[in-house]
Model the fold of this input.
Amino acid sequence: MTLIVSKILSKTILKGLTSSFILELPPYRKPQFGKIFIRSILDRTVFVLGRAIAVAAPAGLVIWLFANIGINGESILSIVANFLNPFAKLMGLDGYILTAFIFGIPANEIVLPLILMCYLKNTSLVNLEDTFAIGNILIQNGWTILTAINTMIFTCLHFPCTTTLLTIKKETGSWKWVAISFIIPTVLGIITCMFTTLLYNIII
Done:
């Protein structure tokens, strides 16, 4: 999929832009481990963690509010999931899975805990270590082999997490590339899941 998209982009919006690879070797100096260690922490660890916290904290608050605030006895999270359910079914998923992907944009790692939280009607994220217990919960909530396949497909083909998107903005200096990086994989993921669902329904 990466090769196909790269080929299409090189023939369209990137047409005419030359790419080159330059390897510049700086003069050799004796490594200064103190500076390297501090620079690595500041430039990488602190920078990435800072952005993750800046995004994850507000997102966590939003998820908690949506899970705990209800309308007519139903949480806002469930209302959103039910609204998305018809479209999610076209992708071979369900509304809760699609909602988890949307709310999981701060960090893809919370998608499964969000799905489990929705299924178990909890008001906080669920983290289970027992894979058999997780499997039973998913099966009890209607998961089939198609659901599992399309969840894996959409995991590989959907929008990057917010930290990655912010890094793209920092590196390119343009919101255009952030939008492109968000839209292309997401649209491809939706189309691929719909195709897989159609193919599965025809065969089965």
Q: What stands out?
A: The chain is about 70% helix and 0% strand.
